[in-house]
Amino acid sequence: MVVNRIADLAFTVGMLALFYTFQTTEFNIVFGLTPYMMDTTILFAGSQISPLTLTATLLFLGAMGKSAQIGLHT
Fold this sequence. Notes:
This protein is mostly helical. 59% of the residues lie in helices and 8% in strands. It has a two-stranded antiparallel sheet with strand order 1-2. Helix 1 packs antiparallel against helix 3. The longest helix is centred in the first third of the chain and has 21 residues.
């Protein structure tokens, strides 16, 4: 149950990062704007990181935790 909550948090923060970066969660718009965001960086946890990398990582961790993949299973 704890792993499921961690996955929920990662997925929620990933969706918020997606909305913060693109101002929408509609996939057609996100995929259309992605090439324009390739050189963008943000300050996250004291280091410069691409918002695309951050969003993809958080969404991936959320999906991994919800489906109990290796590292997030009990």
